[in-house]
Amino acid sequence: MRKSILQAIDLKTKVLFSMVLLLYVATPFVLNPSLQPAEHSGDILILNAAQALPLDVDLEALPEHQAQWLDVEFPLHWRDQFTDSRAVWYRMQISQQTLDSLASEGERLGIYLWRLNQTADVWLNGLLIGSGGRTEDPMVRYWNSPLYFNLPQFLPAGRSELLIKHYAERGWGSMEPVVLGLDSVLRPVYEQRYFIQHDLALGLFVFVLVTGGLSLLIWVYRRQESEYLWFSIASLGLSFYCLNQFIRYLPVSSDLWRWLSNISIDLWAVAVFLFVLRSMKIGRPRAERLAFLYLGLGIPLYFYASFYSAFDINIYFHLGSIWIGIYSFYLSFKAYRRTADLLPVFYCFAIILVVIAGLHDVLMQAAVNNGWHFGLLPGFENHFNFTHFAAPLIFVMIAINLMKRFVLSMNAADETNEQLELRVAQARDELAANYKAMETVLKAQSAQTERERIYRDLHDDVGSKLLSLFYRLDREADSLLAKSALEDLRDIVSHRSLEGCSLNEALQQWHAEAEDRVRDAGIRLDWRCESDLGDFELTEMQRAQLRRMLREVISNALLHSNQLTEIRVSIERVGEQLHFNIDNNGSYSPVSEWQVGRGISNLRVRARNLAGSFELLDLTGDWVRVSWSVPLDGGQPDSSRSD
User: Fold this and answer.
1) In contact, 24 and 355? CB cutoff 8 Å
2) pLDDT at position 34
3) What are the structural domain ranges in the chain?
4) What does CATH list as the number for 500-631?
5) 378-417: string of b/e by CB count within 10 Å (b at 16+)?
6) Model pTM score
7) Which of 290, 376, 438, 582 is the most exposed place for a label (fewest CB within 10 A)?
8) Residues 380, 102: Cα–Cα separation, whole Å
């Protein structure tokens, strides 16, 4: 069976949402200063009734209109009785006994007008004790701020008359009960309410405007992220709404200002909705078109509607903004259920608080400014607008989102830097290796060029002379030496000694060369070597050095022994070692008595260069052995000596 929506919500989500709702429910009790008589006992007097004169006349002209005074009760809304009035006088009589019950030795009394629209001047016994400000156009606005004035220190004996001249534009006036009491009691209440309604609204206006400017700046540099543009537009709408809470004198006509202030609310709701869609990458084109249609309908509606109708219509029409907020909450909640990301949760919290605050403000305006009571609970009229206090929570959510993106961007930047540093290091190593390889190639090319020059010189000069010497020598030994030297020169010039080859191929070449040399000398050659010693490639150095060692040993045997008759050559492979044993029967003295010359020294050096070993051994009779072993692989030849 499918789970219900409530069953699908995990416990953590329930707890978080419950905490936020509980916080918001407690907010009105913390921020709303209540002025019920029971709270201050005999320290205050609430005047709920008065006489009213709906005429804009001076104080001196009041006696001429004694018969026109009407009995009224507060709260009073002009639209009910004084539709065409610009000013209304209120007259209240306060007995000496009442004043004495409020008075305290050494402390003054105060009069507290905690809600009125739009401003007022106050007289006591014909003496002006306070004025709200300019009453001509543009008229000062105290629609969202209280007024407070102190009564004179010394009051005359007998009954006192309190007169209030209440001003409002085009009949849009309202007055709540007048409060009279000790200054020590009323002034803290007034200052608290003034701070909440005026100073906080001013601070929020600056905060929202700056935040919107920063968001717009981000969008200018990151045009592809349109959520910042919509956030800046939402900031513009909310900042205008905050400005409307505390501005005293309007820079434009009241009709134009009223039109703009109503549009700003809907603009803010639509822009926040589009921001939520963009920031969470949610596509709802039909919902977006409906939101734009709603915003577009409100523009002519607010502009062309009559004064009173506009304030009736906005109560209904602003409900569309609340529905937009509810839909934004729904989308954010779905995104949270889908992704389990915290950002949609934050959006849900902020949006639901703003929706509740907006619903509260709509009902409050209906009750306070328009006089639609609907049987509301007593004390509701003491509230004030909440929307601009709850709305900055969304800005906090945006800040969290920006911080999250900033952290992710920094992490991505660090990761990119690490990858870049790694790539730079790899590229640097590759460049160094390439440079080294190029340097090696250049050196090899230079050496090759120099070799070619030397080869040409040797071939042209030394080669021709050795050939002439070979034909002119009479002694056979000298002719053999000249022939050997000529063959070495030809090998060098032809580059054959510089090329690597397979081991079997090298053995065949060495055998053929040794066979030719000993045949010319009339000496018998006993070549002992398997025809196939395995598949192994000799390097250039191995081939050249081993060939020269074999040639040197055979040459020494042919040149230094007159009684030589036989040479035995044994080459075998044992594992990765190649063993050479060259025996001859032309030794005339033990090896220990030999004088080591350049030939034997060169043989030792060549063996060492091949990481091998070299030794001379006496055999039976006139036989002597020259032996060396070299590794076929794994050896580290010393190439510093190659002569």
Assistant:
1) no
2) 47
3) 42-191, 198-413, 500-631
4) 3.30.565.10
5) eebbbbbbbbbbbbbbbbebbeebbeeeeeeeeeeeeeee
6) 0.61
7) 438
8) 27
CB burial of residue 579 (10 Å; 0-12, 13-18, 19+)? middle
Determine how many CB atoms are found less than 10 A away from the CB of residue 112: 23
Closest CA to 577 of 615, 624, 542, 625: 542
Q: For position 398, what pLDDT does the model report? A: 67
Q: Is 259 helix (H, G, I), strand (E, B) or coil?
A: helix
Residue owning tokens 């009559």: 306
Query: First-to-last CA distance in the chain?
Result: 93
According to CATH, what is the number of the domain 42-191?
Answer: 2.60.120.260
Residue 444 has a CB neighbour count (10 Å cut-off) of 10
Would you say 132 and 121 are in contact if contact means Cβ atoms under 8 Å apart?
yes
Query: Helix 319-339 and helix 285-304: axis angle, to 10°?
Result: 160
pLDDT of residue 253: 82
Burial class (CB in 10 A: 0-12, 13-18, 19+), 119: buried
Residue type, 448: Q
Side chain identity at residue 199, one-letter code: D
* Share above pLDDT 90 across residues of the chain, in percent, rounded to a whole number: 16
Q: What is the pLDDT of residue 148?
A: 95
Q: Are 584 and 568 in contact (CB under 8 A)?
A: yes
Residues of the chain with pLDDT under 50: 1-9, 31, 33-41, 374-378, 380, 497, 637-643
* DSSP code, position 639: T
